[in-house]
Amino acid sequence: MELREKREWAADNHRAGTASRRGECTWGGAPCPHPAAWSVRVSSAAGDSWWAACAAHATASPVLSPPAAG
Fold first, then answer.
1. Positive or negative CA dihedral for 21, 26, 30, 34?
2. How many CB atoms are located within 10 Å of the residue 12 CB?
3. What pLDDT tens digit does each residue of the chain (70 aa) get?
4. In a 3-state reduction of DSSP, which class is residue 58?
5. Concatenated DSSP letters for the chain?
6. Which of 12, 15, 21, 25 pairs as cysteine with 54 (C-beta 3.0–4.6 A)?
7. How far is the C-alpha of 52 from the C-alpha of 44, rounded, in Å?
């Protein structure tokens, strides 16, 4: 999985009827009680997709917040 784009969460970045569109954090594969702070577009073997990530998941994820090169 590779990060393509990360921006402040906006409903328009997500498909209608999805948890991401409702502002729910969908990052991490399990229900999350925190609201989405970021809209993130990632690529994988299946293609590009938009996800919603809360601040805590975005900070903890090496995909969304990669360690500084050094």
1. negative
2. 6
3. 888 999 999 999 999 999 999 999 999 877 789 999 999 999 988 899 999 999 999 999 988 887 776 6
4. helix
5. -EEEEEEE--GGGS-TTSTTTTTB--TTSS--SSBP-EEEEEEETTEEEEEEE-HHHHHH-TTTSPPPP-
6. 25
7. 16
